[in-house]
Amino acid sequence: MLGSSDGDREMVKILGAVATEGVPAVQKACAEALDQGVHSAPVILNIPSRRRDPEPPPLPLISPALQLTHEPKADCARYDLLRRAG
Is residue 83 in some structural domain? Predict the structure, then answer.
């Protein structure tokens, strides 16, 4: 960051994240970013927030009574006929 024109500001942003994220989380984020060849504050600060976000919930199980017995088929010709009729 020393070669960057706003490297000081970016370093202050990263150090400011220590107060909310903790030293180990920021340290891991810096190491991960450096392993990827990135050294910008927005990228480094995004890494802990991605880890903090919960994974999406699993898809609900669908009752066999609600499952389709005949899968719908894409039939563009049918829609073309309906469009011409109107």
Answer: no
